Automatic annotation (TrEMBL), chain A:
This is Potassium-transporting ATPase potassium-binding subunit. Keywords: Cell membrane, Ion transport, Membrane, Potassium, Potassium transport, Transmembrane, Transmembrane helix, Transport. The system is composed of three essential subunits: KdpA, KdpB and KdpC. The gene is kdpA. It is found in: Cell membrane. It comes from Streptomyces gossypii.
UniProtKB/TrEMBL annotation, chain B:
Belongs to the cation transport ATPase (P-type) (TC 3.A.3) family. Type IA subfamily. Its EC number is 7.2.2.6. ATP binds at residues 359, 363, 395-402, 413. Mg(2+) binds at residues 540, 544. Gene3D superfamilies: Calcium-transporting ATPase, cytoplasmic domain N, Calcium-transporting ATPase, cytoplasmic transduction domain A, HAD superfamily/HAD-like. It comes from Streptomyces gossypii. This is Potassium-transporting ATPase ATP-binding subunit. The active site is at 322 (4-aspartylphosphate intermediate). It catalyses: K(+)(out) + ATP + H2O = K(+)(in) + ADP + phosphate + H(+).
């Protein structure tokens, strides 16, 4: 089998698996979030935190729940790292510095999992498993909860009520993330990933030097890291590490995990708004962008000029031979476009143009298919903008799913649209202007600039992957990227929930022949165009000075 | 007595009544051609709009103005730099062009306002007091005052006739020179200030304060003084403002990146980039589009009290249409002659025509016409005078028939019961057949008229004339078009359900409300609205007022009562109910024009990037020259070309903004595909061509290329 056939088969297998699973999973998630029954463990949790899971919340209450819960998580994670030396199973590691502890806490509560530390040489078992891995579940469940609140905004009418945050959070964790990741972890162990609480092994290498081999609860973290589109690896090498991602099979499974919920949520959305077509139009828009990205990066990497690449048959620097060009490119696009940020190859090593595509994937606002929950609400916000302009072109006050897109709705969508570009461009400009960015670069010229741009893009969009080599552990970068991650996560949620509230209060407008059909390919095309043009126009100058300057020679 | 001279509305409205009047169906949209003269005339107003307090209201153009000031300062500090001056000049022109677009749109309304203002003279009012009457200025009138108007007087204010009947010349507001009758009581009691009593004497009870009369409102509306941003316009402005902020951010943050790349940019270049990126095209034309939309209504002689109503018209999903005047011609007309067995059709037609010669009602005339038009009956058109000895029997409510007695022959035509009664009275026999025919006609929604003849042989029924409502030409197609637009039509009629159903089927309306009372109408509107639909209706009577107020778009007929005019949010000066359909189209056209130009404006940015980015950074990164796909001659020329294109496209699109994007009543999807093709794809391609051409021209200038 030649390389191209293998790559095509791999993409086809992934797409087929997603197509097969999205339906039962999407329907299951719709059932989970609409069920009236509480499981026994869920009731215990509600009793512990003193929440009434049946009380309907209006958007301010829902938002208060999201923010309060995340603030507590942030403080808890910060404290855990600062007092790591006094915790059991610390493996003798020192407390983390204040700025890095803040950065890491912000990173894991915002579902970013940007890591300015190397996991195996800085964090003890309890911090990794009891702190960071727990947030992998909870931050993901928060994103799904907010997405569900927005979906309810579209589905409900003449009410301000968006459901109950605590119940959404707990159900997402208990009924969706936990069972799937347990299953996935078992399969990963079967493919060779490790799972233990062992102390590091000291081994003697053949050349006589000493080597320090760490163990830990790797497979379990690997499963939720991808399923929850988190991305924070147990090891610094992340999914390129053979203990995390040992074979091509595990690689395919991990890509499946990081795409499966984002691609299934549109089905849940369609179910809940009463028209599966609407969900498919959204999923198709996500799929088109993702697929275009995969093709662009794969082709560019194969075509990469240079004598070393020619000899290897492709640009293999920074890539694992067990995944090859296809498995690496596919993973890279999937991880940047899902706000996951786990990596099985070094994005830093990709050719200039591919690096640009990976960045653009994030710059779109993580919507193709985006993070768990955040991808859906991000794409729906983009749909609101697209509907507004297109709706005008059919001569009606724009409406989406029977809800009018008026002044308040467009105001909130516009605010949402402003957040990440402000953080990405503002953060990068600050770092470049103050010189902190240049100091942290390991490369010079356009590629060096790409490292800084990538860092702020990844942080603000809650992706978490990095152009490896970028020395991110400085007080300035820890603090500024930390702030970008927090603002990039929670500010948009404010606008999403406010919009959900305003939509839920409306009474639906009946569909007529004069209504823009949003469940059709034409609308999907429009949505893709709107996303690409708006983000493309915003970031084109910055991309021109980084990836384009490097790639166009 | 009033001493003011009669008022005419102005040159274009005086003289013959019809030529200057818009024909609703012809889709006339522009008043006079748009050309350089209009631009030149609007120039002073455009310059006045450079006032920062005016500019700040349009965020996009305000940013351009700030950029212009900035580059002006920079150009002054470095006077030898031709590039700085050129960019500065074109940035100012961009602002000026935007102002010009608005000024031209406003100018069209102002011309109309001026003619109206001439109608608003300070008439002297003869106010009735307890002991006679006193003369006071019209401006001193208060609501509830009663004033007397006699032939030759100008009516001093809006009000209702409470006493008397008069013919009134309303050409000042409607342009219609034929006088109309205004009388106390009923639905024809409203009079408008500034119109002139031609005959008789009426007492008017004043219903509006001076300064708030209909003409005052009309003036401020067409002038745009009362113009408030509509909800959709506000929403679009927010989107444009946020895009402006995003691009501002993209440009401001570019400098530190450029410094790192070793390609620091001058503020002039950055200003040029910013102005090219922010959506100036739609930002410049947005208010002109709104003003022109209102103006298009005014040109069709419809006054909307708010732009909000115009937008709502585009969203309407249910139209309530009165049958009479909208769907059918005002009167029933003869459609067919049905002879009974022992009479020939020629005989019947001849008798029917003869009996109708004296009948001046529209129904009577239609019989004469039908008989004459149908050559197969072998008749020629006859006139009353031809029959010298005829004795005409006019139609009365008592006899319910009309006819003629001539040379011993009597012909009668009228209601079935009356005519058959007449036949029996004269010894004739009426067969069952007649009842069968009349019954069938009634069932089909028509009105049967029986024609009988009495001569030496006695009296007998010749046959039946089928009178029916005549559905207006082309109305069926219009309803089909509305259906494609997703609009449901409901016919409102006082007819019985049987008749209503027949007409509804013939006209192709979706639904009908028979034997409709004002309460029924109200209930129907509320029911539709409860389902989330927007409802439009027309009305003229006082009892329509609640429904007009409840409807989202209520169009009052100018001939209607002031209560109706107050309740509705539009007034149709022509009192043509069919115009509701035009109003819906204008509403849609307004929104489409906004959407299309927004799409165009955004799509334009791509080409501008390909012009400006390589120009800025090719020196630092030679590879970026590959982005210079237009092969523009020099960096300066590339940037200048983009700025020039950006400015010129505004002027180029002014006619489109004023005229509106053409609306076709087709399905939403097809409409979207079409508009996306023209304005999305067109917006993508046009600037590549435009910038290239401008660059070729600029490179011809010696010392630059």
């Amino acid at each position: 089998m030649n390389q191209t056939t293998a790559d095509v088969l791999q993409i086809s297998a992934l797409a087929a698996a997603l197509a097969l699973v999205h339906r039962p999973l999407g329907d299951y998630m719709a059932a989970v979030y609409t069920s009236r029954r509480h499981l026994r463990p869920e009731r215990w949790i509600y009793r512990c935190v003193g929440a009434d899971p049946d009380a309907e919340m209006r958007w301010p209450a829902y938002l208060r729940g999201v923010l309060a819960f995340s603030a507590v998580s942030l403080l808890f994670l910060y404290a855990m790292q600062r007092f790591q030396d006094r915790l059991p199973m610390s493996l003798g590691f020192e407390p983390i510095s204040p700025d890095q502890a803040f950065n890491t806490a912000a990173s894991f509560t915002s579902n970013t999992n940007w890591q300015s530390y190397a996991g195996e040489s800085a964090m003890g078992h309890l911090t990794q498993t009891g702190g960071l891995a727990v947030q992998n579940f909870l931050s993901a469940a928060v994103g799904m909860a907010v997405a569900l609140a927005l979906v309810r905004g579209f589905a409900r009418s003449r009410t301000g009520e968006l459901g109950n945050f605590w119940s959404d959070l707990v159900r997402g964790t208990v009924r969706i993330l936990t069972p799937v990741s347990v299953l996935a972890a078992v399969v990963l162990v079967a493919t060779g990933a490790i799972q233990n609480f062992a102390s590091p092994h000291e081994v003697q290498t053949l050349s006589g030097g000493g080597q320090h081999i760490s163990g830990g609860a790797v497979a379990s973290q690997e499963a939720i890291k991808n399923l929850g589109t988190n991305g924070g690896g147990f090891f610094n090498a992340n999914s390129a590490h053979p203990f995390e991602n040992p074979t091509g099979v595990s690689n395919l499974l991990e890509m499946f995990l990081l795409l499966v919920i984002p691609f299934s949520l549109p089905r849940t959305f369609g179910k809940l708004v009463g028209s599966v077509r609407q969900g498919y139009a959204i999923a198709a828009a996500m799929g088109v962008i993702w697929f275009a990205g995969v093709i662009a990066v794969t082709v560019t990497e194969y075509a990469h000029p240079g004598s070393a690449s020619q000899l290897a048959g492709a640009a293999m620097e920074g890539k694992e031979t067990r995944f090859g060009e296809g498995g690496s490119s596919l993973f890279a696009v999937s991880t940047t476009m899902t706000s996951t940020g786990s990596v099985n190859s070094f994005h830093d090593s990709y050719s200039g143009l591919s690096g640009g595509v990976l960045m653009l994937g994030m710059m779109l606002g993580e919507i193709a298919p985006g993070g768990v929950g955040s991808g859906l609400y991000g794409m729906l916000m983009m749909a609101v903008i697209a509907v507004f302009v297109a709706g005008l072109m059919v001569g009606r006050t724009p409406e989406y799913l029977g809800k009018k897109i008026g002044t308040r709705q467009i105001k909130l969508a516009a605010c949402y649209l402003l957040v990440t570009p402000s953080l990405v461009l503002g953060g990068t400009a600050l770092a470049m202007g103050l010189g902190d960015g240049e100091a942290a670069m390991t490369n010079t010229g356009a590629h060096g600039f790409s490292e800084v741009l990538y860092a702020y893009t990844s942080g603000s969009n809650n992706n978490g992957s990095a152009f490896a080599g970028f020395g991110a552990d400085t007080p300035f970068l820890n603090t500024s990227i930390g702030l970008c991650m927090l603002l990039g996560r929670f500010l948009p949620m404010v606008f999403v929930l406010a919009l959900a509230g305003s939509l839920a209060r409306q009474s639906p407008v009946p569909e007529t022949a004069g209504t823009l059909r949003t469940g059709k390919p034409l609308f999907t095309g429009l949505l893709v165009g709107a996303a690409l043009i708006i983000s493309g126009l915003t970031f084109f100058p910055a991309l021109a000075l980084g990836p384009l300057a490097e790639g166009l020679v | 007595m009033s001493t003011t001279t009669p008022v005419r509305i102005g040159p274009e409205r005086s003289g013959t009544p019809e030529p200057a009047r818009p024909d609703a169906s012809s889709g006339r949209t522009a008043r006079g051609p748009f050309g350089p003269r209009q631009l030149a005339a609007s120039l002073p107003e455009a310059l006045r709009k450079l006032d920062p307090r005016v500019l700040v209201k349009a965020p996009v153009m305000f940013v351009v103005a700030v950029g212009s000031v900035l580059t002006s300062v920079l150009a002054v500090t470095d006077p030898g730099d031709w590039f700085g001056w050129a960019i500065t000049a074109w940035l100012w022109l961009t602002v000026l062009f935007a102002n010009l677009a608005e000024a031209v749109a406003e100018g069209r309304g102002r011309a109309q306002a001026d003619t109206l203002r001439r109608a608003r003279t300070d008439a002297v009012a003869r106010r009735l007091t307890a002991d006679g009457e006193e003369e006071i200025p019209g401006t001193a009138l208060r609501i509830g005052d009663r004033v007397v108007c006699e032939a030759g007087d100008l009516i001093p204010g809006d009000g209702d006739v409470v006493e008397g009947v008069a013919s009134v010349d309303e050409s000042a507001i409607t342009g219609e020179s034929a006088p109309v009758i205004r009388e106390s009581g009923g639905d024809r009691c409203a009079v408008t200030g500034g119109t002139k009593v031609l005959s008789d004497r009426i007492v008017v009870s004043v219903t509006t304060k001076p300064g708030e009369t209909f003409i005052d409102r009309m003036i401020s509306l067409v002038e745009g003084a009362a113009r408030q941003k509509t909800p959709n316009e506000i929403a679009l402005n927010i989107l444009l403002a946020s895009l402006t902020v995003i691009f501002l951010l993209a440009v401001v943050t570019l400098q530190p990146f450029a410094v790192y790349a070793g390609a620091e940019q001058s503020l002039i270049v950055l200003s040029a980039l910013l102005v090219c990126l922010i959506p100036t095209t739609i930002g410049a034309l947005l208010s002109a589009i709104g003003i022109a939309g209102m103006d298009r209504l005014v040109q069709r002689n419809v006054l909307a009290t708010s732009g909000r109503a115009v937008e709502a018209a585009g969203d309407v999903s249910t139209l309530l249409l009165d049958k009479t005047g909208t769907i059918t011609l005002g009167n029933r007309q003869a459609a067919e002659f049905i002879p009974v067995r022992d009479a020939s059709i020629g005989e019947l037609a001849d008798a029917a025509q003869l009996s109708s010669l004296a009948d001046e009602t529209p129904e009577g005339r239609s019989i004469v016409v039908l008989a004459a038009a149908e050559e197969r009956y072998g008749l020629r058109e006859r006139h009353e005078g031809e029959l010298a000895h005829a004795e005409w029997v006019p139609f009365t409510a008592g006899t319910r028939m009309s006819g003629v007695d001539v040379d011993g022959v009597s012909v009668r035509k009228g209601a079935a019961a009356s005519v058959t009664g007449w036949v029996r009275e004269h010894g004739g026999h009426v067969g069952e057949e007649v009842h069968g025919i009349t019954g069938r006609i009634s069932e089909a929604g028509g009105t049967p008229l029986v024609v009988a003849r009495r001569d030496a042989d006695g009296a007998r029924v010749l046959g039946v004339v089928h009178l029916k409502d005549v559905v207006k030409d082309g109305i069926r197609e219009r309803f089909a078009a509305l259906r494609r637009m997703g609009i449901t039509t409901v016919m409102i009629t006082g007819d019985n359900p049987l008749t209503a159903k027949a007409i509804a089927a013939e006209a192709g309306v979706d639904d009908f409300l028979a034997e409709a009372t004002p309460e029924d109408k109200m209930a129907l509107i509320k029911r539709e609205q409860a389902g989330g639909k927007l409802v439009a209706m027309t009305g003229d009577g006082t009892n329509d007022a609640p429904a007009l107020a409840q409807a989202d778009v209520g169009v009052a007929m100018n001939t209607g009562t002031s209560a109706a005019k107050e309740a509705g949010n539009m007034v149709d000066l022509d009192s043509d109910p069919t115009k509701l359909i035009d109003i819906v189209e204008i509403g849609k056209q307004l929104l489409i024009t906004r959407g299309a130009l927004t799409t165009f404006s955004l799509a334009n940015d791509i080409a501008k990037y390909f012009a400006i980015i390589p120009a800025m950074f090719t020196a630092a990164y030679p590879g970026l020259d590959k982005l210079n796909v237009m092969a523009l001659s020099t960096p300066e020329s590339a940037i200048l070309s983009a700025v020039v294109f950006n400015a010129l496209i505004i002027i180029a699109l002014v006619p489109l903004a004023l005229r509106g994007v053409r609306y076709r009543p087709i399905e939403a999807d097809k409409l979207l595909r079409r508009n996306l093709g023209i304005y999305g794809l067109g917006g993508l391609i046009a600037p590549f061509l435009g910038i290239k051409i401008i660059d070729l021209l600029i490179s011809l200038i010696p010392g630059i290329g």
